[in-house]
Amino acid sequence: MENTSVTPNQLPFSREVLLDEPVSPVKPTSRVEVRRITMPPRFAAGWHVHNGPVVGSVVAGTVHFQVEGGPETELKAGEVFHEPVGVPVRFDAGAKGATFLAYFLLADGEQPEIALVDGDSAE
């Protein structure tokens, strides 16, 4: 059998990096829980924090997304996000609502947690 190597540029599909974000602080991860979350139009989840990092992608609709200290961004279907552990984040649905996939990086025996924070303390 002949050994033929194929370079990534020769493959009949493409690969595009959408997010390359450090996980800081480093977190032992033994599993990933993926959730499909649907929010009604203009639902304001408000400022909140998670007990672990969350990465995800918007499937439908739009989201007003902001990490504490950063600019507000409108995310559309196909765009990705990262919610750092313990950092306040705002994630509010746009005029037509939103559906997104959220990937929770979890240690052994850990469950995803969310805590609301006062909007004044996040600004």
Average pLDDT across residues?
90
Helix content: under 10%
From the alpha-carbon coordinates, what is the Rg to the nearest angstrom?
Answer: 17 Å
What is the straight-line distance between the termini?
A: 64 Å
Secondary-structure-derived class: mainly beta
Question: Describe the biggest sheet?
Answer: 7 strands, antiparallel
User: What percent of residues are in strands?
Assistant: over 45%
Number of DSSP helical runs: 1
Number of strands: 7
Q: Give start-end ranges of low-pLDDT stretches.
A: none
What is the H/E string?
A: EEEEEEEH
Shape: globular
List the helices and strands and how they pair.
Layout (H helix, E strand, L loop, with lengths): L30 E9 L4 E7 L3 E14 L5 E4 L3 E4 L5 E18 L7 E3 L2 H4 L1
Antiparallel strand pairs: 1-6, 2-6, 2-7, 3-4, 3-5, 3-6
